[in-house]
Design brief:
Layout: E1 2-8, H1 24-39, E2 46-49, H2 53-68, E3 76-78, H3 87-101, H4 103-114, H5 118-137, H6 149-165, E4 172-177, H7 179-190, H8 194-202, E5 209-215, E6 218-226
Parallel strand pairs: 1-4, 2-3, 2-4
Antiparallel strand pairs: 1-5, 5-6
Helix pairs in contact: 1-2, 3-4, 3-5, 4-5, 6-7, 7-8
Length: about 240
């Protein structure tokens, strides 16, 4: 059997013009993860990252901690199979019409606009996010030119299938990705519904990791949403 550690990237730059970059807190979370793994001398045979800047930078910062500790850190292979679904594009396209025609979304958006402070804005936005993305994933909210939820899941599952086909060597692999692919990994391991897959993805903390055993057709969960490197609650974030 081989071991997979699947990492959600550090906190990205929420509500900024360019979301796809780590915030200062996201960089710190990534550094803490690297230091924690290095202190436990956890080494890897293969390292993969999704193509997003926030995913690759999380891998880079963890690798920096390894090099500082004098531990091996294989080259990171960027694999588009582990890219996130395009949530921001779905929200951007769908929200204007929903604000006109959907009472629930309009009220949630009003709460978001009235929210004061970063934490309140995070929480109120998350309510909008869950409603809109949930409807889109269920096929109730088609948007043009964006990879559908079903195609996203197929893409990520194909990536895991390829990994499993080569997983009979007792290797340890890490993938730096996002909440969506982690949800799909949980779907693969536990046969989750779309709704449960999304709920699983939304519960992932930034820089947290889940662990799986894999070989051939076997893909088994051993731990979910672990963040032992986060000892200060100020660094525990979900968005």
């Amino acid at each position: 059997m081989s071991h997979l550690l699947l990492v959600r990237h550090g906190q990205a730059s929420f509500l900024e013009k360019d979301y796809d970059k780590l915030s200062q807190k996201g960089e710190a979370q990534s550094h803490l993860l690297g230091e924690y793994w290095a202190s436990h001398k956890l080494t890897f045979d293969h390292i993969y990252s999704g193509p997003r800047v926030r995913q690759q930078d999380t891998a880079r910062i963890v690798g920096d901690a390894y090099r500082k500790a004098g531990l091996p850190w294989p080259g990171v292979e960027v694999n588009p199979a582990f890219d996130e679904f395009r949530a921001e594009a779905v929200i951007e396209q769908a929200l204007p019409s929903l604000l006109e025609n959907d009472h629930l979304v309009r009220n949630l958006h009003r709460d978001f606009e009235k929210a004061e402070g970063q934490e309140a804005r995070f929480k109120t936005f998350q309510r909008i996010f869950e409603v809109v993305i949930g409807r889109w994933a269920a096929g109730e909210l088609p948007v043009a030119g964006i990879e559908p939820w079903s195609a996203f899941c197929d893409r990520v599952q194909d990536g895991f299938a390829t990994l499993c086909a080569n997983g009979n060597r007792g290797q340890r692999v890490v993938i730096f990705s996002s909440g969506g692919p982690t949800g799909v990994a949980m779907q693969r391991a536990l046969n989750l519904s779309t709704e449960a897959t999304l709920k699983t993805a939304w519960m992932m903390a930034n820089s947290a990791y889940s662990q799986f055993l894999f070989s051939g057709s076997r893909f088994t969960l051993t731990s979910y949403n672990s963040y032992p490197h986060i000892t200060n609650r100020d660094f525990l974030t979900y968005r």
